[in-house]
Write a structure and sequence with these properties.
The protein contains 4 helices and no strands. By secondary structure, the protein is an all-alpha fold. α3 runs antiparallel to α4. The protein is globular and about 40 Å long.
């Protein structure tokens, strides 16, 4: 398991999120500290067209990067809403489709 820092585990399987830790995860995902590390990780397998390989990331890692896209000007409230909506969707995804990952 790849831990960026003890405060946020971007490789955490979405099925491990429970009511007790969901709010903590949402708050951790607002911390910009991990952005450069995750971007560097994605760029390790950059293709010739400059596309990063996000297959190495869990849904949580991709969500973290999505809300911080450098070409988007998103305020704190928008980031909070995106994180909440996406994580809540990912939590109910297995019960709807028997899938634990959006790629499936």
């Amino acid at each position: 398991m790849y831990l960026v820092d003890s405060a946020i585990n971007v490789d955490l399987d979405i099925s491990d999120l429970i009511e007790d830790n969901i709010n903590e995860m949402k708050n951790s995902m607002l911390d910009i500290t991990y952005f450069d590390t995750l971007t560097n990780r994605a760029s390790l397998y950059e293709d010739q067209q400059g596309n990063y390989d996000y297959s190495l990331f869990s849904n949580i890692g991709v969500t973290y990067l999505y809300v911080r896209q450098k070409d988007k000007k998103r305020g704190l409230q928008t980031k909070k809403e995106y994180i909440s909506i996406i994580l809540n969707f990912l939590i109910i995804l297995p019960s709807l489709y028997n899938k634990n990952d959006i790629e499936n």
